[in-house]
UniProtKB/TrEMBL annotation:
Protein name stated in the entry: Stp1/IreP family PP2C-type Ser/Thr phosphatase
PROSITE patterns documented for this protein: PPM_2 (PS51746)
One Pfam family of this chain: PP2C_2
Lineage: Bacteria, Bacillati, Bacillota, Negativicutes, Acetonemataceae
Cross-referenced InterPro entries: PP2C, PPM-type-like_dom_sf, PPM-type_phosphatase-like_dom
Protein origin, superkingdom: Bacteria
Positions of the PPM-type phosphatase domain: 2-233
Database matches in SMART domains: PP2C_SIG (SM00331), PP2Cc (SM00332)
Length: 236
């Protein structure tokens, strides 16, 4: 298993409010919101909370541990927001994956994404907790229309914006040659799934593939921070 991570401020934002953890077998991406005095705090606290929970784990079942860790992150971010008026309403997306043997376990809140590339076919594993995500799922708009929808940035679920959070969890069995991508919407709002699949299907160093994806997002406008983790399973 080889893992690569890259985070870029983009071309418009003054600060990078994304955070990530790339410490195999744990991987986390978080996209903070609430402005530079809050968003970067929310994402960093959430990512660090998940990382710390796994560092101190003692053989707990991974799915339950992911859910508990993200709920802990929600509690911490929400409490910080209540204690400081400048951080009121802050929150973050959070997508995490943990690999044990041949199984990848994942937990997710928000509209950052977890993808699986297998045999050249890209599948979105996570579900977007956003207004446009719901509209796409119920057939009201297409995925292409979602990319330009005026309310595409409205989340229906996030970490830290309320005293409770519902966490999506799941698992998948990995095969040799699989590639897993965790990324914030700074990438997916600028680069299509088809472009992601094409880029990740190329041969080459994983770090170079990530750099190409981030460059493509910036070439398309770089309207948001861009963070991505690529995990390559050459043998499981």
């Amino acid at each position: 298993m080889l893992a690569y991570a890259l985070s870029d401020i983009g071309k418009v934002r003054e600060t990078n409010e994304d955070s990530f953890v790339c410490q195999p077998p744990l991987f986390v991406v978080a996209d903070g919101m609430g402005g530079h005095v809050a968003g970067e705090v929310a994402s960093r606290v959430a990512a660090d909370t998940v990382s710390a929970r796994f560092a101190g784990a003692g053989g707990e079942e991974p799915t339950a541990l992911l859910s508990e860790a993200i709920i802990d992150a929600n509690d911490k971010v929400y409490r910080l927001a209540q204690e400081d008026s400048e951080r009121a309403g802050m929150g973050t997306t959070l997508t995490a994956a943990f690999v044990a043997g041949s199984v990848l376990y994942w937990g997710h809140v928000g509209d950052s994404r977890l993808y699986l590339l297998r045999g050249g076919v890209l599948s979105q594993v996570s579900e977007d907790h956003s207004l446009v995500g719901e509209l796409v799922r119920n057939g009201s708009i297409t995925a292409d229309e979602a990319l330009i929808h005026p309310h595409r940035n409205i989340l229906t679920r996030a970490v830290g914006t309320g005293d409770r959070v519902k966490v999506d969890t799941g698992s998948l069995t990995l095969a040799a040659g699989d590639k897993v991508l965790l990324c914030t919407d700074g990438l997916t709002n600028m680069v299509t799934d088809g472009e992601i699949a094409a880029a990740l299907s190329r041969d080459g160093d994983g770090a170079a593939l990530l750099a190409q994806l981030v460059a493509r997002a910036n070439d398309a406008g770089g309207l948001d921070n861009i963070t991505a983790i690529l995990v390559c399973f050459e043998a499981v």
